[in-house]
Amino acid sequence: MTTSHSLTAERLTLGYGDRVVVESLDLTVPPGRVTVIVGANACGKSTLLRSLSRLLAPREGRVVLDGRQVHRMPAKELARTLGLLPQSPVAPEGITVLDLVCRGRHPHQGLFSRWNGRDDAAVAAALEATQTTDLADRAVDELSGGQRQRVWIAMALAQETDLLLLDEPTTFLDASHQIEVLDLLTDLNRTRGTTIVMVLHDLNLAARYADHLIALADGRLHACGTPAEVLTEDNVRTVFGLDSRIIEDPVSGRPLMLPIGRHHVRPQ
Amino acid sequence: MSAPAAARPSAARVVARGRRRSATRRRVIIATLAVLVVAGFAVTLMFGQTFYPPDDVVRVILGEQVPGASFTVGRLRLPRAVLAVVAGFSFGMAGVTFQTMLRNPLASPDIIGISWGASAAAAIAIVSLSLDRTQVSALAIVSALAVALLIYVLAFRDGVVGTRLILIGIGISAILESVTSYVLSRAAEWDLQEATRWLTGSLNGVTWDQTLPALAALVVLTPVLLHQARDLSAMQLGDDTASALGVRVERTRVTVIVAAVGLIAFATAAAGPIAFVAFLSGPIAARLVGVGGSLLVPAGLVGALLVLVADFAGQFAFDTRYPVGVVTGVLGAPYLVYLIVRTHRAGGSP
Description:
heterodimer, A: alpha/beta, Rossmann fold, 2 domains, six-stranded mixed beta sheet, four-stranded antiparallel beta sheet, globular, B: mainly alpha, ABC transporter involved in vitamin B12 uptake, BtuC, 14 helices, 75% helix, 0% strand
């Protein structure tokens, strides 16, 4: 599974109703890397992610995967290459972890192809990678937020896609679970070569875990590159309207953003 | 979970064991339900005012002339029992289709007015327009589809949200129910039996003319729904997740709505809106087989069993004969109250 796929957006314009959310955006997702999209609330991050994964048809422009337009590919074929974990997926009441993770095999099953050993193996690998094997018989609605998020990621892993898109996979999680999820995704990227694209709210976690950082402002691509190139005081000011200082993160060596508000700022 | 000394089972073993266990459970329960439906069907044919032994019943079904039994079993009991199974199966499958698609147990077609669409049309067609059976069925299906479309359009705002659709459906349901009552109240010469058919559902005096169209619809539409079963299950995870899993959400939704509404319309045109069968079958089936796989067939079997048992009980368990819909209504109403109370407590969708 080390084949690298190219995913690009060309002059992409997206919107709902009369509202244009993303305008004429060009974007290349580097294969085999972790890409993180950041931006202020309502800047079009989720909308962009939904369009990259065929959920939202573009007004103009196109999303291209390996030379083919995503919105014209057969749905199941695309779902075998590109997976998406939406922001708030819904678990049917009473469903067990195992049953939910098995749903990830949906695109690999046809009308006449029965569940087979490969499906079993994929589900087992997904449970193992997310350390949810022990939860297999539990009902999803009984789990804690962190466990539940790992189960959803397990479902996406069972799909065995080379590209995985995640919309804020760390929301509603406490600090240790956030790190756990991001470490898990990094493992996945390093061991399987899965290309990861995710939206994150926390700039410092984004800078720490991204190989490639994309900053959106008002539906336009404001900056992209390595975290060191993108996470600058100027960019934080333009994208978030926030004064800040950027220092080197003593733990990772990546940039660390310290916001400057109106209070609790030491006089210089 | 016990045996702490044993090594932790590998993920592969956990998956294999878990899948085997749920497959076995599913098979056992579906087989049991099927046996119960067949048994209920047989009992309905044998027992009544007069008892006919199994070999008489079998001979009648095979087309032989048996004095007494040919009329009682062949003309009276057989069409009634077949319609009980057909209508129950149709309501059960259609109900669970809507509940699965909209991810809400309240979203059953008898709660959101689709059954009432068929019912009101059938009542008007018979009482005011004096149409024949085929025309009644046709009008009922068109009307049920129109009501489904109306609810869908009214509920549509950047996609369909389950709760809004349910509330609009309940409103439309109330309007159509009063239309039905009004039409029936104007039909002075109409007897009570016929009136209850369109208000609560009844199998009294059923003939093959009513049973056969519903049977034909079931035979045609069941494969359509079963073909969508897996996509339908994926849609339980939300539209976005389902799309990400490769489901063409809009296409699946339209296909299953049309098929489920068709089932409801034909069954309702024959037996009336047998109260709460569509609503109850899915949740009962989910309790029995778990929510891992498709619930279409289990819910259909539960529906068939509910109607068979309720109709038999309505005829013979009490001093007065009650139509089947009254019996299922008594069973279903407390569950509806329970769901609404629970929805309120949770402050959201149940």
